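#dry-run=false #mode=assembly
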Amino acid sequence: MKALQSILLPVAASLVAVVIGGILVAALGYNPVSVYGSLISGAFGNLGNLGNTLTASLPLIIIGLGIALSFQSGLFNIGADGQYWIGATAAVWVGYHFTSLPGWLHMLFCLAAGMIAGAIWAGIVPGLTKAFVGAHEVITTMMMSYIAILFARYLIEGGPMQEKGYIPQSPLIASNTQFPYFTQGFMRSQLSPISMAIAALAVIVAWFLLYKTTLGFSLRSVGLNPRAAKYAGIRVKLHIVLALALSGLFAGLAGAVQMLGVDHQLLDGFSSNYGYTAIVVALLARNNPLAVVISGLFFGALTTGGQNMQIASNVPASLTNVLTGLIIFFVGCERIIPQVIGWYRRRRSLRAQTPAS
Amino acid sequence: AGCGTNNSSSGTSTQNSGGTSNSTSTTGKTIKVGLVTDTGGLNDNSFNHLAYVGMQEAQKQLPGIQTSVVQSQSESDYVPNLSHFAQDGYNLVIAVGYLMADAVQQVAKEYPKTHFLIIDDSITGIPNVASAIFQSQQAGYLAGVVAGMVQKDHLLKNINNHNTVGVVGGQEIPPVDSYIAGFQQGFHSVDPTGKVLIEYTNSFNDEAAGSQYAQNEIAQGADIIFPVAGGTGIGSIKAAQSAKVYAIGVDTDQSYLAPGTVITSAIKRVDTSVFDTIKAVQDGTFKSGVNNFDLSNDGVGIAPLISGLPSSVMNAVNQAKQQILSGKIQVSSTVQK
Amino acid sequence: MDTVLEVVDLKKWFPGVKANDGVNLAVRAGEVHAILGENGAGKSTLMKVIYGLLEPTAGEIKLFGQRAQFRSPRDAILAGIGMVHQHFMLIPALTVAENVVLGDEPGGIRFNRREAVRRVRELSERYGLAIDPNAKVGDLTVGLQQRVEILKAFYRKARVLILDEPTALLTPQETRELFNIIRALKAEGVPVLFISHKLDEVLEISDRVTVMRAGKTVETLDTKGATPQTLANLMVGREVVLRVEKPPMKAGSPALEVRDLRVRSADRHERVKGVSLTVRRGEILGIAGIDGNGQFELADAIAGLLRAEAGQIVLDGRDITHLSPAERTELGIAYVPQDRQLDGLVLSFDLADNVILRDFRRQPFSRRGILNRRAAESYAKRLIEAFDVRPPDFRRKASELSGGNQQKVILAREVSRDPLVLIAAQPTRGLDVGAIEGVHRQLIRLRNEGKAVLLISLELDEILSLSDRIAVMHDGEIVGVVDGEGATREQLGLMMTGQRAKEGTA
Amino acid sequence: MIFSNPEIWALTLSMAIPLALPAVGGTFSERTGVVNIAMEGIMLIGAFFGVAFSYWTGNAWIGLIGAIVCGALTALALAWGAIHVSADQTVLGMGINIFAAGLTTFLLNTLFGYSGTPVNTPKLPSLSIPGLDRIPYIGVIFTNQSVLVYIGIILIFLSHWFLFSTRLGLRMRSVGENPLAADTLGIPVWRLRYLGVILSGVFSAIGGAYLSIGILNGFTSNMTSGRGYIALAAMIFGKWTPLGSFGAALIFGFSTALGIVLQGHGVSSNILQMIPYALTILALAGLIGRSTPPAADGIPYEPRR
Ligand SMILES: Nc1ncnc2c1ncn2[C@@H]1O[C@H](COP(=O)(O)OP(=O)(O)OP(=O)(O)O)[C@@H](O)[C@H]1O
Ligand SMILES: [Mg+2]
Ligand SMILES: [Mg+2]
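#status=ok
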């Protein structure tokens, strides 16, 4: 019953958002049916679009797992975006060095580099300062995130990682580290079975770690009641560092997977905002790793569907943001539905009572 | 002057058979054109916007043109967005920005029937890809000459004795740096001892930062500010206006932003290149390879000068232009630090 | 006699719990009306409904003969109801004065802080509840916080006063002062609803007693003629043993030795100033003392939650001064902390997770870092049964249990670890007589099995009835150690104020 | 020396104000117990409508009022979701940020086109404080600053006084620390939370308007460039007090100004722009240490009736 409710409510809330968005879109002179039609078909309409949706959701899912983990440990890692970029940078750097390694090993190296870089980025400065000085992690992770992005930029804008020539981009990673795409089915999307497998593995690992291991037990205890955790013999400071590092590890992994699977090089764009969207992904999933999959897919679909909406319905990109914002807002407000139902019931029962008494 | 594309055929690109525009406008066959912006979006006050302007102009002037735009949210969107148009049977897909070069190469090979145009990058050897390269350093050079003349001879009021001009760059990337390099070179050609302050804001939409960077340069004595920073640069121009010094616009004629403040603008006709390519696709005269836009075909240049300058300035500009065209002056596209 | 407050067939249902299920009550002017009931009987719920914090499911409340329908405490306050809440309704970040005057502050737009301090100081002097109005409430001991709660209620000059377990944390002297105040109110015709689990207090102060059981009022009787035994039996619905049998001590070798220990609390104050004591196998060593004299810091330090600045802690001959809490737990220290919700439990964990909280790293609850949930569940089931935790469902979150049952879970967990030394800090705080009986039995059982028990309590009666030896702490030092047998309240009371014992042996 | 260049102080102040105002706003919201990460979005709303109303009415002051009203309305939505629905406040804030970015860009393009807001939009006046501006060296701080700088500084000090020295301020803080306790004292928890959130909207909107009609007279899409998030950091850095937030914003403004002033000496601008972020971490780790939020920050209060 509870499980069913936890699925039905967000769905119902999204529907409310969709209706409100539809009214808005209609008021602006667009046909809501075709706008939403293009959103849905853009996200799921054919295998290629489905592939794009999956591709877009993978980084959100992987980062979202890390953020969920940090939330469950009582920490708000708002700087996953920077950890993602640092992970991507490290993976790319390894990806175009060490070319003598066998492909699979090289790939593993890249992934490991991404994870380690992300973990260090979140674990060292934000983790240690939180544990030992009490520096608020929202500030430190955010500042480190800006620094990460500036650092990555520096590296490819005239810095040591810039490819020869005038364009600020890194060299391509070795071709045998690039994940192969699906050869059929998801034609022309940049979806790779390896990326999907890694994401699936990450979900399972995160879930297992949180709920089935003593480490997860410790992390959750620290998150829910640090004093009781200390009483239980858990080393709270260590686990604060661990939680942030693990959270960064997932973000770094996402960066590595994105580089190996999609971008193949560091490009000067730096506007993905995956790290921020993933916060919403994690929160809407109530920080449950399995639910992160669903909310990640939801946002992946919104992204790709939104791009298609621009193409098919000539809706400006900004309007898709308006709709996305509305949907996030109302899905956040999902509890309004049982509230309204409860209120209605109470009124009914009141009315039934009044004449009786 | 406006950001005019009203004179659509003024900047003829190198190989189009120019004169048939009238016949095609009456019998224009229906073609679909898709525009993919980079992450800067249509509000970048720069090449994304200009490409859009060119496309709109084409839609207005050429019958049978259907257009659609998609603004990329992240680098990873480039391939899906380009493929989307190609898959939907668009005849021409325009990719704005060198960041999309790899994506264009990849997608163009998969959709050989679709034409592609990439702005600001040179892709060769793919039969359905044309690229537009702008020698914006040449425009920068001419603007630099103007700045140098004004500076050296105190041609406008309030010009101080610091002999300093300031550049506010958006980011250290080629399309920005080429303007700056040319400007630097042009300025020094007139005023070898003058100082060019160069700062980068690392953003293209932060007007406030643009204003503050400009203020800092003005405080150091700069009295002509040349912002190459999209929306950020608008703030720089306004800061120059408030401080009663001067500015030079970029990409399009930006004198409307601050009349009396903007001396001239360094211009890059992205709109023209887009318009011409759309027309070529409609006419069936699309040609792959690199289209070079430079002074020779008015693909780059400077906007009309502020009133009140002596004719010597225009003469110097024309002279510089001739020297560039004749190859006597080579304009570098790397900034001297 | 005129009825001031009347509750008629009141029901308050929570999802799955009928906290109040047919409550009838009439409070007369100028009477002290005690409410008795086991933990979870529904006393606090009833009071919250009266105070407008909870909306009744059914039934009605009449105040001065008029039907009262409070939509919030605001309405109740306006109608003249004041309440001291069982669980503190304090704002730790604010000062005492701010907490007391909040909602009815002196001043216009500006908050007149000086006037607030003055009024609170006056109030505290008048009622003999000494407290620094400028202290931050978060820095106060729980005992002092209790005083703030009481001052809050007095500040508002209620026409009906509800006191929900106000004496749980007061010293005997303070309780006596409070009773004087209550008597003064009574004389002015202000009725007082008084909740306490301490039967002797109820017998002393109240005029009538209403007993609640399982959400229903069972009976209202005159206090005159009632005995502790009759009241206890009524509450629990069975025969209760009020005094636990304790066989003579067979003390063995020292299990825990503390030597010249110095400890600073979290706020960097030195609270334990050179304490030495020994707890032997097979004995209960009670530590008596007024709240705030370092006894809880001492417990925390032995358990490893606070660092020892100096001195030594020796467990069974082994120096554990520098071991981590986890290592101490492994070596056989069990600890029932003073604040069960803050330290003892993870409230959002279910009972199965809470019973393994201290042992989750060990087999069978985990193996090589992987949890074995089934083992935790079957263990939880056993403990819940053995200790009569209600409701008996290990999937329930700890937060959903009444305070008494939360305490049972902690005690069950600690006692069942088969420890060498059990430190029990305030183990019966807020428990009903039945539950207290259970806890006391467990402590004595451990002692009889040859374990060492260090009992820290603010209840002198508890210390007196359980301890084999009693150490009295004052200002971070042990004033003296006396034998449990012959000790008297008066003697201990004196020592607690700092006077050295005559026949004390440390 | 860089510090002898008075420009750095003027820059510091003018960069600090658009951080300090939303940070103070956030302080109001979080002091009453509602986590507010929607400052970025509300700033955008304020920036856009400030320009729009200023242009439509030809009066920048009316523009400012328009900005405040729209910002307050946006905050009202956040308040409703956070207070009445008990929704996750971070999710709501993120939703508002995305919504606001989309809405302002959409309106910019549909109402004013892609080439931006009209150049003849009136802006708020800039003033020098007579007398103070003559002081050598630091006089530049009070020379030719937007009137909103002065108003902002007054508002910040007023806010501090309001929060810590008035009865209403005391009540608002109590609601953010322990709403149940406040409720038992008859304090209207929900109403005060609404007040806090709406005040945050007002302050954030003024911060946004400062950018668009205070120092400039136009709006560009996403022109707040993450200042709302930095403001969030400043609020935490300042330990949820208005003066603390202002101090944090000044440190941030100063180090940003430092990054600007140091440019042009061959060091990569990317590296120089790390200065404010790195300094913030250093200051936090070295000087400021722990900052503890209001105890009930982010926890919805549901009177269980
Ligand atoms: N908000 C609530 N939601 C659900 N159940 C509740 C709530 N408040 C109380 N209960 C349940 O209602 C019952 C009565 O609780 P109440 O606090 O009134 O007991 P009590 O008599 O005051 O006990 P104690 O002596 O321990 O203070 C308990 O079973 C308790 O778990
Ligand atoms: Mg109770
Ligand atoms: Mg209780």
